[in-house]
Each structure stands twice: as C-alpha cells, then as structure tokens.
Amino acid sequence: MARLRIRHETHYSYERPVSFAAHRMLLRPRDSHAIRVTDAVLTVSPPGDTRWVYDALGNSVCCFTPGGESTGLSIISELTIERFPAHLADLEVDDPQTATPIVYTPPDRAVLAPFIDPATEDADGDLLKWLRGQMGSPHEPALDFLLRMNRTIHDGFEYQARDIGAAQEPSHTVRLGAGTCRDFAWLMVEALRRLGYAARFVTGYLYSPGESAMRGAGATHAWCEVFLPDLGWTELDPTNAIAESPDLIPVAVARTPAEATPICGAIHGDPGDTRLTVHVDVRPDDSLQAAA
What we know:
Elements: E1 2-28, E2 35-45, E3 48-54, E4 60-66, E5 69-83, H1 106-116, H2 126-132, H3 142-156, E6 158-159, H4 170-176, E7 178-179, H5 181-193, E8 198-206, E9 221-228, E10 232-237, E11 242-243, E12 248-254, E13 263-268, E14 274-284, H6 286-291
Parallel strand pairs: 6-7
Antiparallel strand pairs: 1-4, 1-5, 1-13, 1-14, 2-5, 3-4, 8-9, 8-12, 9-10, 10-11
Helix pairs in contact: 2-4, 4-5
C-alpha cells in the first residue's frame, strides 16, 4: 500500500473583473479496491455553488459556479489517498482469448464498444503505417504486445512538456516524433483501438519518488487503460514505460482527452490579459510516517 498526499493548485488571474459560468472539475478519485480517499478538502475563491455528481463513466465530478465578479479564480484540491495497485509480474494468464488478436465475450463487447471504435481520423495513413511497424508474431500474448508498445512509445518519441493545449491528433504525434504525456496516452489509445482493443484515456497524478525523475511529475498526468479478458482494465503509461504502478493515481477515465479535462468552464465579460498557473505536488503522507 502507498499512502500519498496530493495538492493541486489552479489559479486564473484576469486583467479586468469577470463573472463566471458553471465549471466542471475532475479532481477527486472514486473510491475502489485500487484506491481509497481518506481525506479531501476543496478550497475555492470566489466562493459559489458546489454540487457533486457521478458522470456516465462513474467519475466523481464537482459542478462549481463561482459567485459574483472577480479578477481571479483559485481552485485548490488537497487529497490523502491510499493506493492498492495490481502487480502484473505476479499474474499467470491462461485464457487463450488474451492472445493476439484480442477476443471479447459478447456481454463485454456490448459494454466496451464505445472504447473500441477510434475517435480520430488518419487521412494520410501515418498512424496506421507506424502501427503496422509495431506488429510482432500473431502468437504474441496480448499483454506482452501491450508492454512492448508501452516501451516503444517511451523509447521512440521525444518528451516535450506542454502545460496547456489539447492533446495532439495521434497521426500528428507520429509525424512529429514528440509530445507530452497526454499526446502519448492518446496515441496508444487510438492505435490500440485500430487493432480491436478496448482502450480509454485516463487523467490523474504521478508520484515521482526520490531521484526517479518521472516524466510528467509536477502537473496533472495522463495514460492509457486497456481492457483484457481475465485482467480487466489495465494501466499502461507510455510516457514512463510503466504498467499497473503505485505511482499512477487515476482520477478520471474518458473516451477522449477532451472529456477528461481536470477543470473546464467559462467566464462572462472581457478579461483582458489572462494568466493561468497550475502546480501539483505529490508526496508521501508525513502523518503516517510520524505515527509509525
């Protein structure tokens, strides 16, 4: 078990006062057998109406509408979580349906269908050409293939941090040979869908212990989940070439990156110059060490 404290600060500064429309925030993981939220504090300024709901995928969503006018908006999420990841190294997968090509049972496929159909175009065939170059033996177990692709993206693409902006189209990432964590996650999701895998986009946090210098630490992080018979949804982070790691802290899952934006909303009025600063800090829970 890993017990961690997470502080996620988001600050918007406006040149002129504005009023606010509703904001949708994905900042809190949903409790499960893999993750437990032991403490959660959300501090917002200016204050406003707050309501928590579950969306269609079971994500915990905070609907927040700041009141009045202001030259700034501050959202600070503080979490204490316990993480209980699976360990792929301990698994023996005997189900023949986990070999390539992947085969889902009819009940599973009915639920997984939205995550199997690609959501992007590949007009020039760049993604498909790259994907064909990754194919190995038709007898390669699916998990071995996924771990190999996870490592290939990590080794073959240049990591470039980019704090703002949407995820690149996967075909663009292939042509560019570079991207950030959300670009690599989206590339893996859309590539796997073209092979018949159910894959989804995950956003959350990354713990970078000691001197490990994980790519994507200090900000929100993104990775890929793939559904495998016998194993269920399995986490793969092509940015760091890790899988089912306790360092991955999932907050929300979605079919596309746009649906997994941690904070989205709108303002009314002309803000003039706008500045956005985001800082994420993930560290071991000191209170647990003190109690020990």
